[in-house]
Amino acid sequence: MKKPLLLIPFLLGACVAQQPDTSVEAGKAAYQTECAACHGADGRGAGDFGVELFTIPPDLTTLSAQNGGDFPRDYVMSVIDGYDRSHAFSAAMPEFGVLDLGPTVIVEEDGVGTPVPATLLALANYLETIQE
């Protein structure tokens, strides 16, 4: 009768919720699928589709340099999402917030938790790694 006890760790493991993937690797995969056609595989704005647009997409490798050396994570996520866009943005840039960006994760900053779609956070994590 002791064999059922061997199943307890397996059953407990099955009850633990899987955390959404917000890794750099997940962000890179999402970037290649959703962004590279316009911004280029390297993020410099010369993707196959991007070079055909009236306004060439910006070089995403210089976001930190344009922000005093700090990666503007919140700004980047709000632009990708479509929440914060000035009139200077091309209408060709989709508002990804209307799409399914996956389950949310809670990002805590200064004791305040904000729900953020996992894919959006993963994209920001990846873009931070390609800064020059």
From TrEMBL:
Molecular function via GO: electron transfer activity; heme binding; metal ion binding
Domain called Cytochrome c: residue spans: 22-131
Any Pfam family: Cytochrom_C
Keywords recorded for this protein, A-Z: Heme, Iron, Metal-binding
InterPro entries to which the protein is assigned, alphabetical: Cyt_c-like_dom (IPR009056), Cyt_c-like_dom_sf (IPR036909)
The protein's name: Cytochrome C
Species of origin: Salibaculum griseiflavum
Lineage: Bacteria, Pseudomonadati, Pseudomonadota, Alphaproteobacteria, Rhodobacterales
